[in-house]
Amino acid sequence: MRGDIRTAAGLSGPGDMMIRTERKYIEILRILKEHQEPMGAKRLSELMAERGFVLSDRAVQYYLRYLDEMGFTEKVGNMGRILTPYGMNETESALVGERIGFIISRLERLAFRSTFDPVTQTGDVAYNLSVVPEERFDEVLNAFDAVAAARCGFFSSYRVLDNDSRVPEGSVGIITVCSITMDGVFQNRGIPVHMAFGGRLSIEHGEPIRFVDLIGYRGTTIDPLQLFISAGLTSVGSMIATGTGIALANVREVPAAAESQVRETVAQMRKSGFVFPVIMGPAPFNLPSDPYRISLVSYSGMNFVASVFEKKIPIRTEIGAGNIPFSRIMPPN
Questions:
Q1: Residue whose C-alpha is closest to residue 4's, from 73, 86, 74, 61
Q2: C-alpha angle with apex 236: 234 to 154, nearest 5 degrees?
Q3: What is the pLDDT of residue 190?
Q4: Per-residue pLDDT reduced to its tens digit, 120-166
Q5: 237 or 277, which is more confident?
Q6: For domain 124-329, which CATH number applies: 3.90.180.10, 3.40.640.10, 3.40.50.300, 3.30.70.1360?
Q7: Among residues 25, 108, 291, 308, which one has the fewest Cβ atoms lying within 10 Å of its Cβ?
Q8: Phi-psi region for residue 244, left (φ > 0), alpha (ψ -120 to 50) or beta?
Q9: Largest CA distance in the chain
Q10: Which fold has domain 14-98?
Q11: Could you read off the pLDDT of 59-110 as tens digits, one per residue?
Q12: Rounded Cα–Cα distance for residues 328 and 333 (Å)
């Protein structure tokens, strides 16, 4: 039996299961859409809990059975569920309204959970998880090392995962620090911060010049930087090799009255290995001016990912995959 998400939203679906307004169904569909590999009830239960929905494995199984009946999901042996092509199409069309603002909401949740203290260099940071083919791992490491050496990532290093259930056989996982960690540090110090834009920053002869494109985080259904990467709109490799190219950067806004506190915090984070800001001021580059706010422009950790994508190496990245202790992101001595 196949249904339609809009039909199942209370018009004529079995049991009037209102998927459009039932957030548990929506989150399950979202999670399956964000992950390419089959996912079982246990892992879905864990990810649902991270999003504020506490469900037992058995409860998740109940929801999955209904989605199977509707034709939205299907089992892949004992490995778990994936979205069907039909389910993917229906999810994309029916959940657009639900997904607006989802990206920033997810990042804000990670910022709240980031407890990193740059003075003691302890606490949790937010991270991104990238998965690459094992046979091309050496190429990926070379690309990551080049970004780190050029200091155009958000953090000065990365960490290769030894074992992780999210990394399929034949692949390698790499974690990088997500820039939303900075928001958590500011918030913990009582500094209001607004994640404003993700953009393409033009670099000429080693100097940042202007933003070529900007996308606001609050009105989008997809992460702006992932969009730029997948569209082939970066040239991080060229920037590293020649000093001229297009890199990814984020724009945050903080109250002008907090500038001294912000500069002190930035200096402390740089001592811990963070690489920012590119620039900070009332109207840097071609950004709009606000007399009561200053903009803080920083390179994104997604430049690591962009450099690999540009080399035609398959890479799948989950932005804001979670929070981990800062000690686990630091390279071993």
A1: 86
A2: 105
A3: 96
A4: 999 999 999 999 999 999 999 999 999 999 999 999 999 999 788 88
A5: 237
A6: 3.30.70.1360
A7: 291
A8: beta
A9: 63
A10: Arc Repressor Mutant, subunit A (1.10.10)
A11: 888 889 888 888 889 999 888 999 998 888 777 765 665 555 667 777 888 8
A12: 12
Report the C-alpha gap between 72 and 95 in whole angstroms. Answer: 13
Strand segments (E) across the chain = 73-75, 81-83, 124-133, 159-160, 171-177, 194-204, 207-216, 245-255, 279-281, 293-299, 316-325
Q: Which residue type sits at 248?
A: L
Rg (CA), the chain: 21
What digits encode the pLDDT tens for the residues 254-303?
Answer: 999 999 999 999 999 999 999 988 999 998 999 988 889 999 999 999 99
Structure tokens at 312: 């035609």
Enter the tokens of residue 203.
Answer: 């670099």
Q: Would you list the domain boundaries of the chain?
A: 14-98, 124-329
- Report CA dihedral (143, 148, 152, 156) to the nearest 10 degrees: 150
Q: Which residues contact 116 (CB under 8 A, 6 or more apart)?
A: 122, 123, 124, 125, 181, 184, 185, 326
Q: Which residues make beta-bridge pairs with 316? A: 131
